[in-house]
Amino acid sequence: MCASVKYNIRGPALIPRMKIKHRIYYITLFSIVLLGLIATGVFQFWPHSIESSNDWSVEKRSVRDVPVVRLPADSPIPERGDLSCRMHTCFDVYRCGFNPKNKIKVFIYSLKKYVDDSGVPVSNTISREYNELLTAISDSDYYTDDITRACLFVPSIDVLNQNTLRIKETAQALAQLSRWDRGTNHLLFNMLPGGPPDYNTALDVPRDRALLAGGGFSTWTYRQGYDVSIPVYSPLSAEVDLPEKGPGPRRYFLLSSQMALHPEYREELGALQAKHGESVLVLDKCTNLSEDVLSVRKRCHEHQVFDYPQVLQEATFCVVLRGARLGQAVLSDVLRAGCVPVVIADSYILPFSEVLDWKRASVVVPEEKMADVYSILQSIPQRQIEEMQRQARWFWEAYFQSIKAIALATLQIINDRIYPYAAISYEEWNDPPTVKWGSVSNPLFLPLIPPQSQGFTAIVLTYDRVESLFRVITEVSKVPSLSKLLVVWNNQNKSPPEESLWPKIRVPLKVVRTAENKLSNRFFPYDEIETEAVLAIDDDIIMLTSDELQFGYEVWREFPDRLVGYPGRLHLWDHEMSKWKYESEWTNEVSMVLTGAAFYHKYFNYLYTYKMPGDIKNWVDAHMNCEDIAMNFLVANVTGKAVIKVTPRKKFKCPECTAIDGLSLDQTHMVERSECINKFASVFGTMPLKVVEHRADPVLYKDDFPEKLKSFPNIGSL
Amino acid sequence: MQSWRRKSLWLALLASWLLGLLGILPLLRLVVPTGPRAGAPQGWPRWLDAELLQSFLQPGELPEDAPQLRRAPRGGSCDWGACFDTSKCRSGGFKVFVYPAAELISEMQHKILASIEGSRYHTVSPTEACLHLLSLDAPAGACSLVPPKWNGGKNHLVLRLHPASCSATFQLGQAMVAEASPTVDTFRPGFDVALPLLPEAHPVRGGAPGQLRQHSPHPGAALLALAEERGWRVAGTDSSACPWDGHCEQDHGPEQTHPGAALPNATFCLIPGRHADALRFLQALQAGCIPVLLSPRWELPFSEVIDWTKAAIVADERLPLQVLAALQEMPPTRVLALRQQTQFLWDTYFSSVEKVIRTTLEIIQDRILGASAHPSLLWNNPPGALLALPTFSTSPLDFPFYYLQQGSRPAGRFSALIWVGATGQPPLKLIQAVAGSQHCAQILVLWSNDKPPPPSWPETAVPLLVIEGHRKVSDRFLPHSAISTDAILSLDAHSSLSTPEVDFAFVVWQSFPERMVGFLTWSHFWDEAQGRWGYTAERVNEFSMVLTSAAFYHRYYHTLFTHSLPKALRRLAEAAPPCVDVLMNFLVAAATKLPPIKVPSGRQHEDASSPRVPGDLEPAAQDCIDRVAAEFGHMPLVSSRLRLDPVLFKDPVSVLRKKYRGLEKP
């Protein structure tokens, strides 16, 4: 079809060149084709619309029409929850063996309406939130409709609020699920556990081994590493539009907005207000509101009326006190307002505490210390408060703001337990996006000076300059710490010289032949590299002395996470052109070293070959230039550190060095190199290179000291 | 033309064929009933009346649920809020009292007591203490004694390094338990403390450093080592799934089994979840072998603060093949990170009894501090929470160690702190040289002399402040509140520096904010003949210390010096003034594990004769390094063989091109 359309487009251009009768002939032919195409199109889509509308009517049923299941009064009831359950005792991990890509598969039971013997419903069929929750799971990567391959089962029996269900009958309904098996691998979501008068902190429905994602666990009911503590969803999250308010000082220092508080707590809050005056605001239910005002959205202090949750944005700290239950929906509203929650609820397990670092977003105060709350909060420095406000808002955005966010975070936590080697890190859970973006985590962070005995592997990239290559090999082999020499033979048309012709050196010499003449072959992580230190050296770098190379290796040992090289280069911002410029003059600064002679950690070979951002690697191979600049970008980007240039400036035989000698100014070369910098900076999305004003010399370099007593006397000779 | 026609005819034919095909297919689909479309996921239905569903919150229920009063902790169950009284700790600071040992004292108990008594938290008065420590490693019989200030166990920490020792006979009451490898079921998170299971021979101080010598695994190293009853069995990289079943033993000769305490040499160490294998966990950490714990029944040590997901893998013992496949396929980046973290954790929290005890106390202090405790970042990144004091700041940006993680860099100003000691002469020339630096923010003169400071000081471009000291050498390292910048240039009255030297050194410091950047150096050495450490000021090819008479460093090290050094060490510094330099260098090296940085100095010769450099060292000074090393328990100093010079330093190029030409005066 595509081809014919193309032909149609080209058609008119050809027509004037044809004879009249042909023209008519063709016009007729094309109109037939065109008509046919239109007809096909209509035909194609018309039956589809019937089909999909059919589907639509099948899927879009009413909740009232779901099948009814009658539970006999004597049907089995599961055991009560087993408090000693852990993943390795109560969870059947074999069921997760099928799941590819380290992702658990979740099955959802279809919706039924459960009634008891006399036909009275066991509970409301399903709540809006639970429907949303199941929809979110169903739309996610976790979902499977194949019950035999599922690792986790989610019943459609809604137990979000214990008050709306009959405990015994709900338990019976759970027990008759087709894969119940003592609740193994079943996940229940509950936000409001317990009921009057004693309000248990976990769902009272007997559930045997089922996992519970509960809002309001206490340390006594929470099975660490098995249950998941979730937030109590606040319906205001969806109902009210509350734009983000930046951190900073706010009108009230401490605010309490909860309506139903125990008189004793209210008394203590009142005492706080009396003591600290204006900066503390204790709100309560409004008593004299007219009928039409939504009481949930208003709070009062004496005769002043405040809008809720907007008033939360006026406070730096907001009290979240326990009510009958430990989990309070107000926590969600408070976080959203960027108000730092002051959680006063002993033994409460904060939502997602398994992965979220609540110290960064909240202050937990023991109930006994409630009277001291003001002074405790005052001791927190302003900068930390602002950090906490930002963090609170981020927690809400990521894990509280919708039922979907809550459901997915819960599944991720369970997923991480089952596939710990693919788990999400602390930073990924807790760092707000702005922090993640700016921070650098050095892959070689451990301060470690590798032993000198390890030595280094020299890698010489060569094409066909055999004579010069042999000289380089002979020179490099004089370096005491050399442990192996690898020649990367990049010429496919010519074989390397016979073995007998190579210089005889004291260390193993290996020749690797490449399949294609690519610059990136220089940075391939060859199996032959056994040392951590790699010396990349061009086949024409014959001017470096043994002392200089050995000293370079010593410097690398002190900076194993950096590029340590000899000729240094600089990038500059060209204000006139508004772009980066490459500089090879005698400058006082360095930001790159050429990899024609440089030491670095072999891990960077792996990064260059497999983790180079964007198309840089192919681009370099295609242009046959700038592999060294790309390596400088890569290393600076992952480590956040500058290169180390070693030893004084020398005359190097390389295209741009002739420029300094004033013999010929290779202008195009400089333009190309500048282009590389601009290209890489745009791919990396930033300029990672760091400019420094120092280079490394031996301790006694150029000091007034007997040369023969210096460790590296032969340095800087031209 | 002919060919044209033919071509178009063919095309027309082709098009009509296409037409036909496209037309017939949907027709066929209409005829053949599709039924439920197989393969397509069905998913949760979109209910017609989804909009009409009720919320799970019944109107009026929330937030108005029935109020309830706090409940008293149930019998025997305790948590931090209910069973610990922090009021004592707030007023008097965190003070720890240890019950004196009973007559039957075990080796380990002795070590524990020694390390607490040496710590800065220790107090001899039980009434002043906020935490009472009771060591329960005594042999059975000595347990039943209830200590005098027991008070129902409130604010008590019961130390149990061996799980078996007299547990049942003792009523714990409200006491916290710090136990080695506690069972997951009885462990109370946030109240108890999980300790590592230590071998009897664990050193009190210092301790063996980690075994890791290189960041990435050697390509020839084995992938797996398996913890066995008597040692480690190393599995070759090629043997795939066998380490679980016993059948592989034939494949590997007996030489593969390392008996006893030998450390495993492999990338991953498989450790079964039994209690007995907890000891293997520490061995793996020390060896830099990534621990793979198979459903451990015990709580990982210090799990309250240490993020073990960064250093170990807790896997399910029932899925051995999946675990193995995951280990084999683990990306090098992750392996690299895990390996390094094992070493960092070993060296920071586990290598000696003293570190284990200090970590335990630090955890409890963090609970008391609440919001001003160590953030998680400080616990889990070098140099670790024992060397990053939360009393200094809770913001990682204030420390010299975390600039990169925070995507930030040190500010561009420094404060010069000039110590005027016995000479009593105002260092006018020095003040002018330092004030000339574009980076200088302020000059503080620390007047530590019997004579009163002169009333008038030279006019400088930057503020100059005179602080009166107490005439103690360690005064210079007090965290003076007047210091307003992160960088400090520490100077002696007799130091002589030029403005370009100061400028260049400061720019270098900005690249290495966690290290000391100095001009004059000493180097330490092991004196084979006398069997002790010595140091020399002679110029040699390497160095390991820089003199604080002219050095840049971060102001955090003042806090560390003043608040973290044991009293014995500070007394030592008072006794022999050159010792403060040694001490400061030890402290920074212990925190960074890296050498200091030397920058060129134009005045090597005159300084060599200055009184604070031990040219012909008096015995007390020469003795100092050996005593400091003994107090530290190990030698933290690291040698460097390089000096950082300006890029064009002494290059054969016009001096006009050079930014720091002042450094090259002969």
UniProtKB/TrEMBL annotation, chain A:
GO molecular function, one term: metal ion binding
Biochemical pathway: Protein modification; protein glycosylation
Cited Gene3D superfamilies: Spore Coat Polysaccharide Biosynthesis Protein SpsA, Chain A
Domain of life according to the entry: Eukaryota
Catalytic activity: 3-O-{[(1->4)-beta-D-GlcA-(1->4)-alpha-D-GlcNAc](n)-(1->4)-beta-D-GlcA-(1->3)-beta-D-Gal-(1->3)-beta-D-Gal-(1->4)-beta-D-Xyl}-L-seryl-[protein] + UDP-N-acetyl-alpha-D-glucosamine = 3-O-{alpha-D-GlcNAc-[(1->4)-beta-D-GlcA-(1->4)-alpha-D-GlcNAc](n)-(1->4)-beta-D-GlcA-(1->3)-beta-D-Gal-(1->3)-beta-D-Gal-(1->4)-beta-D-Xyl}-L-seryl-[protein] + UDP + H(+)
Location within or outside the cell: Endoplasmic reticulum membrane; Golgi apparatus, cis-Golgi network membrane
GO biological process, one term: heparan sulfate proteoglycan biosynthetic process
EC number(s) stated in the UniProt entry for this protein: 2.4.1.224
Pfam families: Exostosin_GT47 (PF03016), Glyco_transf_64 (PF09258)
Protein's job: Glycosyltransferase forming with EXT1 the heterodimeric heparan sulfate polymerase which catalyzes the elongation of the heparan sulfate glycan backbone. Glycan backbone extension consists in the alternating transfer of (1->4)-beta-D-GlcA and (1->4)-alpha-D-GlcNAc residues from their respective UDP-sugar donors.
Subunit structure: Part of the heparan sulfate polymerase, a dimeric complex composed of EXT1 and EXT2. Could also form homooligomeric complexes. Interacts with NDST1. Interacts with GALNT5.
Name this protein carries in UniProt: Exostosin-2
Organism the protein comes from: Myotis davidii
